[in-house]
Design brief:
Layout (H helix, E strand, L loop, with lengths): L1 E2 L6 E2 L3 H19 L7 E5 L12 E7 L3 E8 L11 E9 L3 E16 L3 E9 L5 E5 L2 E5 L12 E3 L23 E3 L19 E6 L9 E9 L8 E4 L1 E3 L2 H25 L1
Helix pairs in contact: 1-2
C-alpha cells in the first residue's frame, strides 16, 4: 500500500489498471459494434443435422458485389451414403437488390461413382451448369432440384470421399456408374495421386443484379438447404444460421477478458 504525500488516505496501485481495463473494454465494444471490413461476404451453415433421419452438413457463402452476387455451396458430409445427403437446392430471401433469373457463370467439377465407391473418370471442370435461379417475390431459389426435376438429372453436390479416396459407403443412389453425375463440393484441397488433385472443389454460381447497388444495403436471410431428389427443392430440408466473422468473435472474447480484468482490479482496490 502506498501513501499519498500530505494525506493519510491510501491510494490503491490497482486503480490505473482498472481505469485502463475499463477504457479498453469500451474501445473493444465500440470496435466490435462497428461494421466489419468484410461485411459484403456472409456465410450460413446448417451444422450437423439429421432431417428425416438423414445426416447432412452444408454451408453457403455469399460474396456480394456492386453488380452481382457469388454463391459458393459446400457439402461437408464426407463419404456420403445416399442421394438424400446431396445438395439439390438453396433458398434464401434477399433484400436491397433484385437479382436476375439467369446464372451469369459457374465454376464446378463433375464426376461419377462406380458401384463399389470408385471415383469414375473423367473428372471434368464444368463450364455449363444444370442449376437454375428462380425468383418468387424476395425469395431466391438456386437449384438443380426444382419442380421440373427429372430423376437422373446430374448436378447435385456431394461431399468428399473417405481417406482411401473412395465413396465406399455409397449405395446405388450415388454409385450410378454415370459420368458427370455429381458435383464435388467438399471445399478441400487434394494433392498428389488423389483423384480430385488440382480440381476446384468449391462450386460457385454468379448471379447478376438488375442494376448497380450498394453492397452494404443487401441483406441475406431465411437460408434453407434442400437435399435429395424430391420436388420441389429436394426431399429433406435444413435451415442454416449465419456464421459470425472470426474477427467479431475475437473482439467479443477480448472484451469479456478485459471486463474480467477490470472487475478483478476493482475488487482488489476495495480491499
Amino acid at each position: 500500500m502506498h501513501w499519498k504525500r500530505g494525506t493519510r488516505k491510501p491510494v490503491s496501485p490497482s486503480l490505473p489498471v482498472a481505469r485502463l481495463a475499463s477504457w479498453l473494454v469500451c474501445a473493444t465494444v465500440a470496435i466490435g459494434l462497428a461494421p466489419a471490413g468484410r461485411a459484403n461476404i456472409v456465410e450460413f451453415a446448417t451444422g450437423a443435422q439429421t432431417p428425416g433421419g438423414v445426416a447432412v452438413n452444408a454451408s453457403a457463402t455469399f460474396d456480394i458485389n456492386t453488380n452481382s452476387i457469388t454463391v459458393t455451396l459446400l457439402n461437408l458430409t464426407l463419404n456420403p451414403t445416399d442421394v438424400n445427403q446431396a445438395i439439390g437446392s438453396l433458398r434464401f430471401t434477399i433484400t436491397g437488390a433484385v437479382p436476375t433469373n439467369t446464372i451469369a457463370s459457374n465454376a464446378d467439377t463433375t464426376f461419377g461413382i462406380i458401384p463399389g465407391g470408385v471415383i469414375k473418370n473423367p473428372i471434368t471442370a464444368q463450364t455449363t451448369t444444370n442449376w437454375t435461379n428462380t425468383l418468387s417475390g424476395q425469395q431466391d431459389a438456386l437449384c438443380v432440384v426444382c419442380a421440373t426435376f427429372v430423376t437422373g438429372t446430374p448436378g447435385l453436390i456431394v461431399g468428399g470421399p473417405n481417406t482411401s479416396d473412395k465413396y465406399d459407403a455409397a449405395d446405388a443412389t450415388l454409385a450410378t456408374n454415370t459420368s458427370g453425375q455429381w458435383i464435388i463440393g467438399s471445399g478441400l484441397t487434394y494433392t498428389g495421386a488423389q483423384k480430385f488433385a488440382g480440381f476446384d472443389t468449391s462450386p460457385s454460381w454468379v448471379i447478376n443484379f438488375a442494376a448497380g447497388i450498394d453492397p452494404n444495403t443487401v441483406v441475406i436471410t431465411n437460408v434453407i438447404f434442400g437435399f435429395g431428389v424430391g420436388t420441389p427443392f429436394g426431399t429433406e430440408f435444413a435451415p442454416a444460421e449465419e456464421v459470425p466473422e472470426p474477427g467479431s468473435v475475437i473482439l467479443f472474447g477480448t472484451g469479456l477478458g478485459l471486463l474480467a480484468i477490470a472487475v478483478g482490479a476493482r475488487r482488489l482496490r476495495r480491499r
